Amino acid sequence: MSAIRRRHPKVAVTVLLCASIVLVRGALELDEDFSCAEIGCNSTHGITNYSYWRWSTTKSKQSSLSIGPAENGRTGNAVTFDVIYCPPPNPNPDHLGCYRSELALQRDVQDSLIPWTPYIGSNERWFGFSNRLVNFTFDGVDGIQLSGPIFQIHGGGGLPQYKAKHPVVNLQVDATGCSASNRSCPSYNIEVSNNIDPAAPRCAEQYPHCWSLGPALDPKTDSFGEWQDWVIRWKGSPSATGGYLQVWRNGIEVLPTQTLATAYNDTISPYMKFGVYRGVWKGTGRPTVSKRSTTAYGGIKVGDEHSSFDEVSTAQGKTSGTGGR
Questions:
Q1: Hey, where are the domains in the chain?
Q2: pLDDT digit string (tens) for 199-253?
């Protein structure tokens, strides 16, 4: 049985599982392996520990979350998010329909994960996670064709003008402009929104900053469903010189350190969430091929400013990251 290590606000936690004591490392804020012993699993494999996590969904039957074996070459457990398209109400004032299944920390916990000084920003944070696209298709038609965010740092929305804005950091698969026959075209993108420098290059959803992190398709297996091991080093700041972002994919640095504003000039902390979010399914467009999204997470860790690549990496049987810090 695997163990969970967490550090709650100002308290170091020691967890006893299977007669073994695991101490929290000083730099690690969160270590979630999605074991049933820790997160709790009910008879339908949904999680039960909602004192720590919250599930974001439209409460439709076509949106689900389940815990089970990681599969596809990974050991341990995984949490799987699944959404099947259904048309939203028309008109759609509440953006209901079937388009999301995500996990985030409870609000009384999330603020301690990313301590925030209003108008200044946060300390450095390291995010490590492993995920795979269990079910991924794209329509291959004109317009924005996005898998939707699979990981994001979302603005807290303390000030009204930031409540409906893009996430400040957004990792997703973008198939905009890709023909249905060109499977190597969709790419992982990471995007930053900060309301600064609107003349900067934009990606499909008009983010001020966007970088491609390589094709979503694995050329060796011709599959979108291989495990991807991510490490993101981020410092949140509304200042153009105060924030930065750095990304590794499968142990290789795919985005060298970028110094820029990485958050809104807000009063409360951004927060982390992950899963499936198909925002384009909320609107008037209707998918023709891509009518289901399924993403699995095999683990997620968050480290503070004293952390490192090795501490937060959730890769299994792989070496340290190359490039960068």
A1: 5-312
A2: 555 666 778 888 999 999 998 899 999 999 999 999 999 999 999 999 999 999 9
Distance of CA 121 to the CA centre of its chain: 20
Residues paired with residue 102 on neighbouring β-strands, in sequence order: 56, 275
Q: Which residues contact 172 (CB under 8 A, 6 or more apart)?
A: 146, 147, 148, 149, 150, 188, 189, 191
Q: What is the pTM of this model?
A: 0.87
A 10 A CB-CB count for 12 gives 12
**CB of 290 closer than 8 Å to CB of 180:** no
In terms of Cα–Cα distance, which of 240, 132, 241 is closest to 196?
A: 240
CATH of domain 5-312: 2.60.120.200
